[in-house]
Amino acid sequence: MKKLVLLAALTALSACSQKAEESKDGTAAPAETAAPAPAANPGTAPGSYDVKMADGTTASTIINADGTYADIDAKGNAAQKGKFAHKDGKDCFDPDGDEAEVCWNLSPVAADGSFTATAPDGMTVTVTPKKS
Fold first, then answer.
1. CA–CA gap between residue 21 and residue 12 (Å, rounded)
2. Which of 22, 25, 65, 102 has its CA 20 to 30 A from that of 4?
3. What is the pTM of this model?
């Protein structure tokens, strides 16, 4: 059975804050209240993520600051590890051994930090940052 490469990515999005602009007379103008459009996903940051497959199966991925990753299956067992990189707007996982690198397309990040990632074969997963 072909090994499944799990994807996880956390986007460290800065909270958008707008300073009220001061008018010429020194009073503050009200800040805009419209919600900003979803930002493009700039790729992952080191951290731990829950990954949910289309069939409801869940797993975890840990992205390390040194450019490595580790996948953990639903039972808590180490499933796969290797190198991680963000290339050409995609998150790429290169498993240890002879398996080929797989690069995933990322959706914009939702308000809760979650996003979807789609593999070249069309498989889509939902990635959610683990809460500390």
1. 27
2. 65
3. 0.69
